[in-house]
Amino acid sequence: MIANVDIVIACLYILFILIVGLWAGISHKRRSKAAAADEYFLAGKSLRWPAIGLALFATNISTVHLVSLAQSGFDSGLLNGNFEWMSAFTLILLALFFVPFYIKSGVATLPDFLEKRYNRSCRDWLTVISIFSAIIIHIAFSMLAGGIVLKTLFGVSMYTSVIIISLITAVYTIIGGLKAVVVTESIQTIVLVTGAVIISYAAFQKIGGWEPMVQVLQQEGGMEKLSLLRPHGDSSGMPWYAIFLGYPVLGIWYWCADQTIVQRVLGAKDVNHARVGSLFCGFIKILPVFIFVLPGLIAYALTQSGQLDVSSLQTVDANGNTVVQSKGIYTLMITQLLPSGLIGVLVAALLSGLMSQVAGALNSVSTMVSYDVYQRYKPGTTDKKLVQVGKIAAGVALVFSLLLLPLLNKYESIFIGLNDIIAHIAPPITCVFLLGVFWSKASAAAAKHTLWWGSLLGAIVFAVNKLVPGSLLAQVPFMMMAFYLFCVCVIMQVVLSYVFPVQHTAESKNLFWTKLSEPFRMKAWSGPGNYKLLTVLLLMVMTVLYYMFK
Protein backbone atom coordinates (compact mmCIF):
# COMPACT_ATOMS: atom_id res chain seq x y z
CA MET A 1 0.00 0.00 0.00
CA ILE A 2 1.21 3.53 -0.70
CA ALA A 3 0.87 6.84 1.16
CA ASN A 4 -1.94 9.33 0.63
CA VAL A 5 0.41 11.90 -0.93
CA ASP A 6 1.30 9.40 -3.66
CA ILE A 7 -2.36 8.68 -4.33
CA VAL A 8 -3.03 12.44 -4.62
CA ILE A 9 -0.14 12.86 -7.09
CA ALA A 10 -1.45 10.00 -9.23
CA CYS A 11 -5.02 11.33 -9.22
CA LEU A 12 -3.90 14.86 -10.09
CA TYR A 13 -1.89 13.48 -12.98
CA ILE A 14 -4.87 11.58 -14.38
CA LEU A 15 -7.00 14.73 -14.12
CA PHE A 16 -4.28 16.78 -15.83
CA ILE A 17 -4.02 14.39 -18.78
CA LEU A 18 -7.81 14.30 -19.15
CA ILE A 19 -8.00 18.11 -19.29
CA VAL A 20 -5.06 18.42 -21.70
CA GLY A 21 -6.44 15.71 -23.97
CA LEU A 22 -9.87 17.29 -24.19
CA TRP A 23 -8.41 20.78 -24.71
CA ALA A 24 -5.98 19.63 -27.44
CA GLY A 25 -8.58 17.73 -29.42
CA ILE A 26 -11.40 20.25 -29.19
CA SER A 27 -9.30 23.40 -29.75
CA HIS A 28 -7.51 21.86 -32.72
CA LYS A 29 -10.80 20.99 -34.42
CA ARG A 30 -12.02 24.55 -33.91
CA ARG A 31 -8.89 26.06 -35.48
CA SER A 32 -8.65 23.71 -38.43
CA LYS A 33 -10.39 24.02 -41.77
CA ALA A 34 -9.74 20.39 -42.70
CA ALA A 35 -12.55 17.90 -43.21
CA ALA A 36 -13.94 16.57 -39.95
CA ALA A 37 -12.90 12.95 -40.51
CA ASP A 38 -9.39 13.84 -41.68
CA GLU A 39 -9.05 16.13 -38.68
CA TYR A 40 -10.29 13.57 -36.16
CA PHE A 41 -8.38 10.51 -37.37
CA LEU A 42 -5.17 12.04 -38.77
CA ALA A 43 -4.95 15.42 -36.98
CA GLY A 44 -5.41 17.19 -40.32
CA LYS A 45 -2.01 15.77 -41.40
CA SER A 46 -0.29 18.51 -39.42
CA LEU A 47 2.08 16.52 -37.19
CA ARG A 48 5.76 17.54 -37.06
CA TRP A 49 8.74 15.29 -36.42
CA PRO A 50 9.16 15.81 -32.63
CA ALA A 51 5.52 14.94 -31.95
CA ILE A 52 5.69 11.96 -34.34
CA GLY A 53 8.84 10.55 -32.71
CA LEU A 54 7.55 11.00 -29.16
CA ALA A 55 4.12 9.60 -30.05
CA LEU A 56 5.65 6.54 -31.76
CA PHE A 57 7.70 5.87 -28.65
CA ALA A 58 4.78 6.47 -26.27
CA THR A 59 2.43 4.21 -28.24
CA ASN A 60 5.07 1.48 -28.22
CA ILE A 61 6.17 1.87 -24.60
CA SER A 62 3.35 0.99 -22.26
CA THR A 63 2.96 -0.37 -18.76
CA VAL A 64 3.66 -3.73 -20.39
CA HIS A 65 7.21 -2.61 -21.03
CA LEU A 66 7.84 -1.12 -17.60
CA VAL A 67 6.53 -4.22 -15.86
CA SER A 68 7.57 -7.02 -18.23
CA LEU A 69 10.99 -5.70 -19.25
CA ALA A 70 11.91 -5.35 -15.59
CA GLN A 71 10.64 -8.91 -15.12
CA SER A 72 12.73 -10.12 -18.05
CA GLY A 73 15.77 -8.26 -16.68
CA PHE A 74 15.32 -10.06 -13.37
CA ASP A 75 14.84 -13.47 -15.05
CA SER A 76 17.25 -13.41 -18.02
CA GLY A 77 19.27 -10.20 -17.83
CA LEU A 78 19.64 -7.84 -20.79
CA LEU A 79 18.53 -10.44 -23.37
CA ASN A 80 15.10 -8.97 -24.10
CA GLY A 81 16.73 -5.60 -24.65
CA ASN A 82 17.08 -6.90 -28.21
CA PHE A 83 13.42 -6.08 -28.75
CA GLU A 84 14.25 -2.44 -28.02
CA TRP A 85 17.53 -2.02 -29.87
CA MET A 86 16.58 -4.09 -32.92
CA SER A 87 13.59 -1.79 -33.37
CA ALA A 88 16.00 0.98 -34.38
CA PHE A 89 16.81 -0.98 -37.54
CA THR A 90 13.15 -1.52 -38.42
CA LEU A 91 12.45 2.19 -37.83
CA ILE A 92 15.17 2.91 -40.38
CA LEU A 93 13.32 0.66 -42.82
CA LEU A 94 10.11 2.54 -42.06
CA ALA A 95 11.74 5.93 -42.62
CA LEU A 96 13.63 5.04 -45.79
CA PHE A 97 11.45 2.57 -47.65
CA PHE A 98 7.86 2.66 -46.39
CA VAL A 99 7.16 6.27 -45.41
CA PRO A 100 7.48 7.74 -48.94
CA PHE A 101 4.78 5.42 -50.29
CA TYR A 102 2.51 5.91 -47.29
CA ILE A 103 2.65 9.69 -47.56
CA LYS A 104 2.59 9.83 -51.39
CA SER A 105 -0.47 7.59 -51.64
CA GLY A 106 -2.34 9.79 -49.16
CA VAL A 107 -3.80 6.81 -47.29
CA ALA A 108 -5.57 7.09 -43.95
CA THR A 109 -4.92 3.46 -43.01
CA LEU A 110 -2.44 0.72 -43.90
CA PRO A 111 -5.22 -1.56 -45.18
CA ASP A 112 -6.00 1.30 -47.57
CA PHE A 113 -2.38 1.21 -48.75
CA LEU A 114 -2.57 -2.54 -49.25
CA GLU A 115 -5.59 -2.08 -51.50
CA LYS A 116 -3.73 0.47 -53.63
CA ARG A 117 -0.72 -1.86 -53.95
CA TYR A 118 -2.70 -5.10 -54.34
CA ASN A 119 -6.51 -5.29 -54.17
CA ARG A 120 -9.62 -4.94 -52.01
CA SER A 121 -9.41 -8.48 -50.61
CA CYS A 122 -6.00 -7.75 -49.09
CA ARG A 123 -7.38 -4.59 -47.53
CA ASP A 124 -10.30 -6.44 -45.97
CA TRP A 125 -8.14 -9.17 -44.49
CA LEU A 126 -5.55 -6.78 -43.05
CA THR A 127 -8.35 -4.68 -41.54
CA VAL A 128 -9.72 -7.66 -39.61
CA ILE A 129 -6.26 -8.78 -38.43
CA SER A 130 -5.23 -5.22 -37.50
CA ILE A 131 -8.38 -4.55 -35.47
CA PHE A 132 -8.06 -7.74 -33.47
CA SER A 133 -4.29 -7.31 -32.96
CA ALA A 134 -4.85 -3.75 -31.71
CA ILE A 135 -7.46 -4.98 -29.23
CA ILE A 136 -5.40 -7.93 -27.98
CA ILE A 137 -1.81 -6.72 -28.22
CA HIS A 138 -2.04 -2.97 -27.70
CA ILE A 139 -5.04 -2.63 -25.39
CA ALA A 140 -5.72 -5.87 -23.48
CA PHE A 141 -2.08 -6.67 -22.61
CA SER A 142 -1.51 -3.05 -21.50
CA MET A 143 -4.59 -3.26 -19.29
CA LEU A 144 -3.33 -6.52 -17.82
CA ALA A 145 0.09 -5.11 -16.92
CA GLY A 146 -1.43 -1.93 -15.55
CA GLY A 147 -3.98 -3.88 -13.53
CA ILE A 148 -1.30 -6.05 -11.91
CA VAL A 149 0.65 -2.96 -10.81
CA LEU A 150 -2.36 -0.99 -9.58
CA LYS A 151 -3.67 -3.97 -7.63
CA THR A 152 -0.32 -4.38 -5.89
CA LEU A 153 0.09 -0.68 -5.11
CA PHE A 154 -3.45 0.32 -4.18
CA GLY A 155 -4.87 -3.01 -3.02
CA VAL A 156 -7.95 -2.65 -5.22
CA SER A 157 -9.37 -5.11 -7.73
CA MET A 158 -7.36 -5.31 -10.94
CA TYR A 159 -10.50 -5.01 -13.02
CA THR A 160 -11.87 -2.04 -11.08
CA SER A 161 -8.70 0.01 -11.42
CA VAL A 162 -8.21 -0.83 -15.08
CA ILE A 163 -11.81 -0.04 -15.97
CA ILE A 164 -11.61 3.39 -14.31
CA ILE A 165 -8.31 4.36 -15.97
CA SER A 166 -9.40 3.00 -19.36
CA LEU A 167 -12.70 4.88 -19.28
CA ILE A 168 -10.91 8.14 -18.49
CA THR A 169 -8.51 7.50 -21.37
CA ALA A 170 -11.40 6.65 -23.69
CA VAL A 171 -13.13 9.95 -22.90
CA TYR A 172 -10.39 12.22 -24.27
CA THR A 173 -9.43 9.77 -27.03
CA ILE A 174 -12.96 9.40 -28.38
CA ILE A 175 -13.77 13.11 -28.07
CA GLY A 176 -10.43 14.56 -29.17
CA GLY A 177 -9.20 12.14 -31.86
CA LEU A 178 -5.59 11.73 -32.98
CA LYS A 179 -4.53 15.25 -32.04
CA ALA A 180 -5.55 14.64 -28.43
CA VAL A 181 -3.74 11.30 -28.52
CA VAL A 182 -0.48 12.74 -29.88
CA VAL A 183 -0.40 15.74 -27.54
CA THR A 184 -1.05 13.64 -24.44
CA GLU A 185 1.38 10.95 -25.61
CA SER A 186 4.15 13.56 -25.88
CA ILE A 187 3.55 14.57 -22.26
CA GLN A 188 3.20 10.97 -21.13
CA THR A 189 6.49 10.02 -22.78
CA ILE A 190 8.33 12.63 -20.74
CA VAL A 191 6.62 11.51 -17.51
CA LEU A 192 7.20 7.83 -18.28
CA VAL A 193 10.90 8.27 -19.07
CA THR A 194 11.38 10.51 -16.02
CA GLY A 195 9.81 7.88 -13.78
CA ALA A 196 11.90 5.11 -15.31
CA VAL A 197 15.10 7.14 -14.85
CA ILE A 198 14.22 7.73 -11.18
CA ILE A 199 13.77 4.02 -10.39
CA SER A 200 16.90 3.17 -12.40
CA TYR A 201 18.94 5.72 -10.44
CA ALA A 202 17.54 4.49 -7.12
CA ALA A 203 18.38 0.88 -7.97
CA PHE A 204 21.85 1.84 -9.20
CA GLN A 205 22.55 3.77 -5.99
CA LYS A 206 21.28 0.91 -3.84
CA ILE A 207 23.62 -1.65 -5.44
CA GLY A 208 26.52 0.82 -5.27
CA GLY A 209 27.28 1.16 -8.99
CA TRP A 210 28.17 -1.01 -11.97
CA GLU A 211 31.15 -2.84 -10.47
CA PRO A 212 29.34 -4.06 -7.33
CA MET A 213 26.54 -5.38 -9.54
CA VAL A 214 29.05 -7.21 -11.74
CA GLN A 215 30.70 -8.71 -8.66
CA VAL A 216 27.37 -10.11 -7.46
CA LEU A 217 26.70 -11.60 -10.91
CA GLN A 218 30.18 -13.17 -10.93
CA GLN A 219 29.62 -14.71 -7.50
CA GLU A 220 26.27 -16.13 -8.59
CA GLY A 221 27.57 -17.36 -11.96
CA GLY A 222 25.25 -15.02 -13.82
CA MET A 223 27.62 -13.02 -16.03
CA GLU A 224 25.72 -14.17 -19.14
CA LYS A 225 22.91 -11.88 -17.98
CA LEU A 226 24.96 -8.91 -19.24
CA SER A 227 24.99 -10.24 -22.81
CA LEU A 228 22.35 -9.48 -25.45
CA LEU A 229 23.68 -12.06 -27.91
CA ARG A 230 23.63 -15.61 -26.55
CA PRO A 231 25.23 -18.76 -28.00
CA HIS A 232 23.44 -21.72 -29.57
CA GLY A 233 21.67 -23.86 -27.01
CA ASP A 234 21.07 -21.01 -24.58
CA SER A 235 18.28 -21.87 -22.11
CA SER A 236 16.36 -18.73 -23.10
CA GLY A 237 15.59 -20.17 -26.53
CA MET A 238 16.85 -16.94 -28.09
CA PRO A 239 20.42 -17.43 -29.33
CA TRP A 240 21.94 -14.67 -31.45
CA TYR A 241 20.76 -16.12 -34.77
CA ALA A 242 17.16 -16.34 -33.52
CA ILE A 243 17.33 -12.61 -32.77
CA PHE A 244 18.65 -11.67 -36.21
CA LEU A 245 16.34 -14.06 -38.09
CA GLY A 246 13.17 -13.82 -36.04
CA TYR A 247 13.01 -10.24 -34.80
CA PRO A 248 12.80 -8.59 -38.26
CA VAL A 249 9.63 -10.61 -38.95
CA LEU A 250 8.02 -9.28 -35.77
CA GLY A 251 9.59 -5.84 -35.99
CA ILE A 252 8.68 -5.02 -39.59
CA TRP A 253 5.06 -5.91 -38.92
CA TYR A 254 5.01 -3.92 -35.69
CA TRP A 255 6.85 -0.77 -36.83
CA CYS A 256 6.12 -0.68 -40.56
CA ALA A 257 2.77 -2.42 -41.08
CA ASP A 258 0.75 -2.06 -37.86
CA GLN A 259 -1.92 0.64 -37.96
CA THR A 260 -1.70 1.49 -34.26
CA ILE A 261 1.97 2.44 -34.58
CA VAL A 262 2.13 3.83 -38.12
CA GLN A 263 -0.95 6.05 -37.75
CA ARG A 264 1.28 8.70 -36.17
CA VAL A 265 3.35 8.71 -39.36
CA LEU A 266 0.27 8.90 -41.57
CA GLY A 267 -0.65 12.16 -39.82
CA ALA A 268 2.70 13.79 -40.75
CA LYS A 269 2.88 17.20 -42.36
CA ASP A 270 5.11 15.86 -45.14
CA VAL A 271 7.56 13.07 -46.02
CA ASN A 272 10.56 14.60 -44.26
CA HIS A 273 8.66 15.16 -41.01
CA ALA A 274 7.52 11.53 -41.18
CA ARG A 275 11.03 10.26 -41.88
CA VAL A 276 12.84 12.34 -39.27
CA GLY A 277 10.13 11.58 -36.68
CA SER A 278 10.61 7.84 -37.26
CA LEU A 279 14.40 8.12 -36.94
CA PHE A 280 14.02 10.30 -33.84
CA CYS A 281 12.04 7.47 -32.28
CA GLY A 282 14.88 5.10 -33.24
CA PHE A 283 17.29 7.16 -31.14
CA ILE A 284 14.87 7.27 -28.20
CA LYS A 285 14.55 3.46 -28.36
CA ILE A 286 18.14 3.24 -27.10
CA LEU A 287 16.92 4.25 -23.64
CA PRO A 288 14.68 1.30 -22.66
CA VAL A 289 17.55 -1.14 -22.19
CA PHE A 290 19.06 1.16 -19.56
CA ILE A 291 15.88 2.40 -17.87
CA PHE A 292 13.50 -0.59 -18.24
CA VAL A 293 15.58 -3.78 -18.57
CA LEU A 294 18.67 -2.91 -16.51
CA PRO A 295 16.67 -2.07 -13.33
CA GLY A 296 15.30 -5.62 -13.39
CA LEU A 297 18.84 -7.00 -13.60
CA ILE A 298 19.92 -4.75 -10.73
CA ALA A 299 16.91 -6.02 -8.76
CA TYR A 300 18.21 -9.57 -9.31
CA ALA A 301 21.64 -8.54 -7.97
CA LEU A 302 20.02 -6.77 -5.00
CA THR A 303 18.01 -9.91 -4.25
CA GLN A 304 21.08 -12.13 -4.40
CA SER A 305 22.99 -9.78 -2.06
CA GLY A 306 20.06 -9.60 0.38
CA GLN A 307 19.35 -5.89 -0.24
CA LEU A 308 15.87 -6.42 -1.74
CA ASP A 309 13.17 -8.36 0.09
CA VAL A 310 11.26 -10.52 -2.40
CA SER A 311 9.56 -12.73 0.19
CA SER A 312 6.15 -11.32 -0.82
CA LEU A 313 6.73 -12.63 -4.36
CA GLN A 314 7.88 -16.10 -3.38
CA THR A 315 5.75 -19.17 -4.00
CA VAL A 316 6.21 -22.94 -4.19
CA ASP A 317 6.19 -24.62 -7.60
CA ALA A 318 4.89 -28.07 -8.53
CA ASN A 319 8.20 -29.66 -7.50
CA GLY A 320 8.15 -28.11 -4.04
CA ASN A 321 10.84 -25.53 -4.84
CA THR A 322 10.57 -21.93 -3.68
CA VAL A 323 10.52 -19.58 -6.68
CA VAL A 324 10.06 -15.85 -7.17
CA GLN A 325 6.97 -14.73 -9.10
CA SER A 326 8.84 -11.97 -10.89
CA LYS A 327 5.75 -10.34 -12.46
CA GLY A 328 5.61 -8.00 -9.47
CA ILE A 329 9.32 -7.11 -9.29
CA TYR A 330 8.87 -3.59 -10.70
CA THR A 331 6.19 -2.74 -8.15
CA LEU A 332 8.37 -4.16 -5.39
CA MET A 333 11.28 -1.94 -6.46
CA ILE A 334 9.03 1.13 -6.39
CA THR A 335 7.79 0.50 -2.86
CA GLN A 336 11.17 -0.55 -1.38
CA LEU A 337 13.60 1.79 -3.12
CA LEU A 338 11.71 5.09 -3.30
CA PRO A 339 10.50 7.54 -0.65
CA SER A 340 6.90 8.72 -0.46
CA GLY A 341 6.25 11.42 -3.06
CA LEU A 342 8.55 9.86 -5.63
CA ILE A 343 6.38 6.77 -5.50
CA GLY A 344 3.52 8.97 -6.75
CA VAL A 345 5.67 10.07 -9.68
CA LEU A 346 6.36 6.43 -10.58
CA VAL A 347 2.67 5.61 -10.34
CA ALA A 348 2.03 8.52 -12.72
CA ALA A 349 4.65 7.06 -15.08
CA LEU A 350 2.96 3.66 -15.00
CA LEU A 351 -0.39 5.29 -15.67
CA SER A 352 1.22 7.18 -18.57
CA GLY A 353 2.26 3.91 -20.17
CA LEU A 354 -1.19 2.41 -19.77
CA MET A 355 -3.10 5.48 -20.97
CA SER A 356 -0.89 6.24 -23.98
CA GLN A 357 -1.03 2.68 -25.27
CA VAL A 358 -4.79 2.38 -24.84
CA ALA A 359 -5.39 5.83 -26.36
CA GLY A 360 -3.31 5.13 -29.45
CA ALA A 361 -4.88 1.74 -30.06
CA LEU A 362 -8.44 3.01 -29.61
CA ASN A 363 -7.80 5.75 -32.15
CA SER A 364 -6.38 3.31 -34.70
CA VAL A 365 -9.30 0.89 -34.24
CA SER A 366 -11.80 3.70 -34.76
CA THR A 367 -9.93 4.83 -37.89
CA MET A 368 -9.91 1.37 -39.48
CA VAL A 369 -13.54 0.62 -38.66
CA SER A 370 -14.63 3.97 -40.13
CA TYR A 371 -12.50 4.02 -43.28
CA ASP A 372 -11.92 0.33 -44.03
CA VAL A 373 -15.24 -1.18 -42.95
CA TYR A 374 -18.08 1.34 -42.76
CA GLN A 375 -17.06 3.60 -45.65
CA ARG A 376 -16.56 0.59 -47.91
CA TYR A 377 -20.20 -0.42 -47.69
CA LYS A 378 -21.47 3.17 -47.54
CA PRO A 379 -19.06 5.16 -49.72
CA GLY A 380 -21.16 8.32 -49.60
CA THR A 381 -20.96 8.57 -45.80
CA THR A 382 -20.45 12.08 -44.42
CA ASP A 383 -17.42 12.97 -42.32
CA LYS A 384 -19.67 13.53 -39.31
CA LYS A 385 -21.05 9.99 -39.61
CA LEU A 386 -17.56 8.49 -40.01
CA VAL A 387 -16.42 10.16 -36.81
CA GLN A 388 -19.53 8.93 -35.01
CA VAL A 389 -18.94 5.35 -36.18
CA GLY A 390 -15.30 5.59 -35.09
CA LYS A 391 -16.29 6.67 -31.59
CA ILE A 392 -18.70 3.76 -31.23
CA ALA A 393 -16.04 1.34 -32.48
CA ALA A 394 -13.56 2.62 -29.90
CA GLY A 395 -16.08 2.02 -27.13
CA VAL A 396 -16.80 -1.54 -28.29
CA ALA A 397 -13.06 -2.28 -28.58
CA LEU A 398 -12.53 -1.11 -25.01
CA VAL A 399 -15.22 -3.44 -23.64
CA PHE A 400 -13.94 -6.42 -25.66
CA SER A 401 -10.39 -5.84 -24.37
CA LEU A 402 -11.60 -5.91 -20.77
CA LEU A 403 -13.28 -9.28 -21.39
CA LEU A 404 -9.96 -10.76 -22.60
CA LEU A 405 -8.03 -9.99 -19.39
CA PRO A 406 -8.72 -13.30 -17.54
CA LEU A 407 -7.51 -15.31 -20.56
CA LEU A 408 -4.30 -13.33 -21.11
CA ASN A 409 -3.46 -13.37 -17.40
CA LYS A 410 -2.65 -17.09 -17.73
CA TYR A 411 0.72 -16.26 -19.35
CA GLU A 412 3.54 -16.57 -16.82
CA SER A 413 5.46 -13.76 -18.54
CA ILE A 414 3.53 -10.86 -20.06
CA PHE A 415 6.32 -9.97 -22.49
CA ILE A 416 6.77 -13.54 -23.72
CA GLY A 417 3.00 -13.94 -24.07
CA LEU A 418 2.77 -10.75 -26.08
CA ASN A 419 5.52 -11.71 -28.50
CA ASP A 420 4.30 -15.30 -28.74
CA ILE A 421 1.03 -14.02 -30.21
CA ILE A 422 2.79 -11.54 -32.51
CA ALA A 423 5.08 -14.31 -33.81
CA HIS A 424 2.06 -16.14 -35.25
CA ILE A 425 0.28 -13.04 -36.59
CA ALA A 426 3.14 -11.15 -38.19
CA PRO A 427 4.73 -13.47 -40.83
CA PRO A 428 2.17 -13.18 -43.69
CA ILE A 429 1.70 -9.42 -43.15
CA THR A 430 5.45 -8.76 -43.06
CA CYS A 431 5.79 -10.85 -46.22
CA VAL A 432 3.18 -9.04 -48.34
CA PHE A 433 4.40 -5.59 -47.28
CA LEU A 434 8.06 -6.37 -47.94
CA LEU A 435 7.51 -8.04 -51.31
CA GLY A 436 4.96 -5.40 -52.25
CA VAL A 437 7.42 -2.55 -51.72
CA PHE A 438 10.58 -4.26 -53.00
CA TRP A 439 9.38 -6.61 -55.77
CA SER A 440 7.50 -5.37 -58.79
CA LYS A 441 6.22 -8.87 -59.67
CA ALA A 442 4.37 -9.38 -56.39
CA SER A 443 0.80 -9.89 -57.58
CA ALA A 444 -2.52 -9.10 -55.92
CA ALA A 445 -3.80 -12.68 -56.16
CA ALA A 446 -0.59 -14.03 -54.59
CA ALA A 447 -0.76 -11.50 -51.75
CA LYS A 448 -4.39 -12.36 -51.05
CA HIS A 449 -3.72 -16.09 -50.77
CA THR A 450 -0.56 -15.50 -48.73
CA LEU A 451 -2.51 -13.45 -46.21
CA TRP A 452 -5.31 -16.02 -46.03
CA TRP A 453 -3.31 -19.22 -45.85
CA GLY A 454 -0.38 -17.71 -43.95
CA SER A 455 -2.73 -16.46 -41.24
CA LEU A 456 -4.50 -19.82 -41.10
CA LEU A 457 -1.16 -21.63 -40.78
CA GLY A 458 -0.11 -19.30 -37.95
CA ALA A 459 -3.40 -19.89 -36.14
CA ILE A 460 -3.06 -23.67 -36.48
CA VAL A 461 0.51 -23.68 -35.18
CA PHE A 462 -0.48 -21.43 -32.26
CA ALA A 463 -3.42 -23.70 -31.40
CA VAL A 464 -1.27 -26.84 -31.54
CA ASN A 465 1.32 -25.22 -29.26
CA LYS A 466 -1.33 -24.43 -26.66
CA LEU A 467 -3.44 -27.59 -26.92
CA VAL A 468 -0.54 -30.05 -27.24
CA PRO A 469 2.27 -28.60 -25.04
CA GLY A 470 4.61 -31.54 -25.64
CA SER A 471 4.39 -31.50 -29.45
CA LEU A 472 7.37 -30.96 -31.74
CA LEU A 473 5.98 -27.56 -32.76
CA ALA A 474 5.74 -26.46 -29.12
CA GLN A 475 9.47 -27.02 -28.72
CA VAL A 476 10.36 -24.43 -31.39
CA PRO A 477 11.14 -21.01 -29.78
CA PHE A 478 8.69 -18.33 -30.90
CA MET A 479 11.39 -16.24 -32.60
CA MET A 480 12.44 -19.11 -34.83
CA MET A 481 8.80 -20.06 -35.40
CA ALA A 482 8.18 -16.53 -36.69
CA PHE A 483 11.10 -16.93 -39.11
CA TYR A 484 9.96 -20.35 -40.34
CA LEU A 485 6.39 -19.13 -40.92
CA PHE A 486 7.76 -16.09 -42.75
CA CYS A 487 9.86 -18.29 -45.04
CA VAL A 488 6.78 -20.37 -45.88
CA CYS A 489 4.84 -17.19 -46.68
CA VAL A 490 7.61 -15.81 -48.91
CA ILE A 491 7.82 -19.06 -50.88
CA MET A 492 4.04 -19.10 -51.17
CA GLN A 493 3.79 -15.53 -52.46
CA VAL A 494 6.70 -15.85 -54.89
CA VAL A 495 5.36 -19.08 -56.41
CA LEU A 496 1.81 -17.74 -56.63
CA SER A 497 3.04 -14.51 -58.21
CA TYR A 498 4.33 -16.58 -61.12
CA VAL A 499 1.15 -18.67 -61.22
CA PHE A 500 -1.00 -15.50 -61.13
CA PRO A 501 1.16 -12.85 -62.84
CA VAL A 502 0.90 -9.26 -61.64
CA GLN A 503 -1.40 -6.83 -63.44
CA HIS A 504 -0.50 -3.38 -62.18
CA THR A 505 -3.02 -0.57 -61.87
CA ALA A 506 -2.23 3.10 -62.38
CA GLU A 507 -1.67 3.38 -58.62
CA SER A 508 0.16 0.14 -57.88
CA LYS A 509 2.86 0.68 -60.49
CA ASN A 510 4.09 3.66 -58.47
CA LEU A 511 4.16 1.92 -55.08
CA PHE A 512 7.34 -0.13 -55.22
CA TRP A 513 11.05 0.64 -55.53
CA THR A 514 12.77 -0.22 -58.78
CA LYS A 515 16.22 0.40 -57.28
CA LEU A 516 17.36 0.27 -53.65
CA SER A 517 19.23 3.54 -54.17
CA GLU A 518 16.02 5.48 -54.92
CA PRO A 519 15.13 6.34 -51.29
CA PHE A 520 18.52 8.00 -50.86
CA ARG A 521 18.05 10.29 -53.86
CA MET A 522 14.96 12.02 -52.50
CA LYS A 523 15.07 15.62 -51.31
CA ALA A 524 16.15 15.98 -47.69
CA TRP A 525 16.46 18.82 -45.21
CA SER A 526 19.86 20.42 -44.93
CA GLY A 527 21.89 20.26 -41.72
CA PRO A 528 21.32 17.86 -38.79
CA GLY A 529 17.73 17.19 -39.89
CA ASN A 530 18.91 15.39 -43.03
CA TYR A 531 17.35 11.91 -42.91
CA LYS A 532 20.36 10.37 -44.70
CA LEU A 533 22.76 11.73 -42.08
CA LEU A 534 20.48 10.61 -39.24
CA THR A 535 20.22 7.12 -40.74
CA VAL A 536 24.01 6.70 -40.88
CA LEU A 537 24.41 8.09 -37.35
CA LEU A 538 21.76 5.75 -35.92
CA LEU A 539 23.35 2.74 -37.61
CA MET A 540 26.76 3.65 -36.19
CA VAL A 541 25.41 4.13 -32.66
CA MET A 542 23.57 0.79 -32.71
CA THR A 543 26.64 -1.03 -34.04
CA VAL A 544 28.77 0.34 -31.19
CA LEU A 545 26.15 -0.58 -28.58
CA TYR A 546 25.84 -4.15 -29.84
CA TYR A 547 29.62 -4.48 -29.83
CA MET A 548 29.75 -3.29 -26.20
CA PHE A 549 27.02 -5.66 -24.97
CA LYS A 550 27.59 -8.61 -27.29
UniProtKB/TrEMBL annotation:
It is a multi-pass membrane protein. InterPro entries: Na/Glc_symporter_sf, Na/solute_symporter. The keyword Transmembrane helix applies. The chain crosses the membrane at residues 6-26, 47-65, 85-103, 124-150, 156-175, 187-204, 238-256, 276-302, 342-365, 386-408, 414-439, 451-468, 480-500, 531-549. Signal peptide: none annotated. It is found in: Membrane. Keywords: Membrane, Transmembrane, Transmembrane helix. Belongs to the sodium:solute symporter (SSF) (TC 2.A.21) family. This is Sodium:solute symporter.
